[in-house]
Specification:
The protein is mainly beta. A 4-stranded antiparallel β-sheet has the order 2-3-4-6, with no helix packed on it. Strands 7-8-9-10 form a 4-stranded antiparallel β-sheet, with no helix packed on it. Strands 11-12-13-14 form a 4-stranded antiparallel β-sheet, with no helix packed on it. A hairpin with a 5-residue loop joins β7 and β8.
Length: 497
């Protein structure tokens, strides 16, 4: 009985350790599907798992990023784009693991698109011959390596080759890596059909929305589009014979990203999870995947911060400065002395520090609450931190102290100028600018009068010029003091009054 209890205890410990080692993976990227397996990129490495999901196995471990893994038609190999030597090139690796084989050797990035239907060649996109590297073109290369052949298609980002390899469905441009959504304009992606034999092109899928990532399966071309009412990327189909389009999926909360086709299914990512779409039934289901990792990136470690400085502020006497780097605040000496990490808040970001003229406080924006709020540290009271506001969502920029160290002025992402009064715990809305964007917002400045009653700044005018405006914080009144006929910039009060 005792031996049985010990055995059960050991089995339970082993199961617990395995459970804790497994992570319910999110942020899975660039998937592909074969008849039996799914491959994807996670944490910058290539992984593989059965189509039923479960525990995934890592195939690559280079320090560089591997992406766009694609199964060969027979499922025996995986090709991908990887950074092993400081540049992104195309590699292949046996499906069950092995030494990666380098296929391309150019100094520009080579992005793998897919295998040719015969499994003997690879299609990739590169800007290696596009002059200023402002666009990509398609290349064909043997899976054994060698000199790539540039296709006749003038521009190309993502594509799918017809089953007989005589035509290619492609997008000349892509918005897949842009940082905004629901774009409607001249750079929106459309799907073209190019005949590789007679060199003719036809625009087959055109919409003011974004249509891209064509996938040629049988007599249909599947693609991503955000043309639906939710304006989310979903999978649509285009019938080559009837030229009719049809919406297949209906995701409204998340966009679908980077779909890839198999012989009978399409695999795609949405919300960081992977899904399989059965083309026969047009039904999809989530593939639940776990990965095993030591989570080494979460271990405590030393990091150099000198090359990650975002902003800084000087003490009034010039003997020290507070520097923002990697979301931390460091007090550094002008010459000799210790470097002090004032915040030491892993997982919390502090932005735009400003040292008060009296030397007692450092004000900054902290997202400890989940949103950036005005916060101060009392350097004369054990470096105590205090959150002063509860503004909620939004981003704010440089802080400007009044000479009496009782107020700060700043601007937010909506171009609204504010003054915060520390004694009254009150926020005053000063004005709203018209045409400031990220760089201008980061560099926006005000000048305080010597008595701390007024701020002066350059006020946007509808004619595109600036005028000098002065705000009275005592009366809470704003007045424009120049005409705005000429552009006036960066006002400054006379220090002598």
């Amino acid at each position: 009985m005792t031996r049985l209890l010990i055995l059960l205890f050991l089995l339970n410990c082993s199961f617990s350790l395995q459970t804790h080692a497994q992570i319910n993976a999110r942020m899975l990227q660039y998937p592909d599907v074969s008849n039996t397996h799914i491959t994807f990129s996670y944490g910058g490495d290539v992984w593989i798992v059965t189509k039923q999901g479960g525990l995934a196995h890592k195939l690559t471990s280079a320090s560089g990023v591997e992406m766009f893994p694609r199964f060969s038609p027979d499922g025996s190999q995986i090709a991908f784009s990887g950074n092993y030597y400081g540049n992104v090139d195309v590699y292949t690796i046996p499906t069950m693991g092995g030494i990666p084989k380098r296929i391309t050797h150019h100094g520009m990035n080579d992005i793998l698109i897919d295998w040719y239907p015969d499994g003997k060649s690879l299609l990739f996109a590169s800007s290696r011959e596009s002059g200023k590297q402002r666009f990509s073109q398609f290349y064909k290369v043997s899976d054994k390596g060698g000199l790539p052949e540039k296709l006749s298609v003038p521009y190309g980002e993502f594509a799918s080759i017809s089953p007989d390899a005589k035509k290619i469905a492609y997008t000349p441009r892509s918005r897949a890596f842009r940082t905004w959504k629901r774009y409607r304009g001249g750079m929106a992606a459309d799907v073209w059909l190019f005949d590789l034999e007679n060199k003719s092109a036809e625009l087959i899928i055109k919409n003011e929305a974004n249509d891209e990532f064509p996938m040629w399966i049988g007599n249909k071309i599947y693609f991503l589009s955000d043309r639906n009412t939710s304006q989310r990327f979903n999978i649509w189909s285009y019938d080559i014979a009837s030229k009719q389009t049809k919406q297949i999926t209906d995701f409204s909360e998340y966009d679908i990203h980077f779909p890839a086709m198999g012989s009978e299914e399409i695999v795609f990512e949405a919300g960081g999870r992977l899904y399989l779409l059965d083309l026969a039934t047009e039904k999809y289901s989530e593939v639940k995947i776990s990965v095993v990792t030591d989570e080494s990136t979460l271990l405590p470690r030393n990091e150099k911060a000198d090359k990650h400085i975002q902003s800084f502020t000087l003490a009034r006497d010039g003997k020290r400065a507070v520097i923002e780097a990697r979301g931390e605040l460091f007090s550094v000496p002008a010459e000799d002395g210790p470097v002090l990490n004032l915040s030491q808040t892993s997982g919390v970001a502090e932005r735009f520090p400003a040292w008060s003229p009296d030397g007692q406080y450092i004000a900054y924006w902290s997202d400890r609450s989940g949103e950036y709020e005005l916060t101060v540290r009392d350097l004369k009271n054990n470096n105590a931190e205090k959150k002063l506001t509860s503004y909620g969502p939004g981003y704010r920029y440089q802080l400007y102290w009044s000479p009496n160290s009782k107020r700060v002025a700043y601007i937010d992402k909506a171009m609204v100028i504010y003054v915060y009064d520390f004694e009254k715990n009150k926020t005053m809305k000063v004005d709203k600018q018209l045409t400031l964007y990220e760089d201008e917002l980061e560099n926006f400045s005000v000048s305080w009068s010597g008595d701390s009653r007024y701020i002066a700044y350059a006020k946007n005018q509808e004619n595109g010029n600036n005028a000098i405006a002065i705000y009275d914080v005592k009366e809470e009144k704003l007045r424009q003091v120049t005409s705005g006929f000429y552009s006036d910039l960066n006002p400054a009060f006379d220090p002598d009054g």
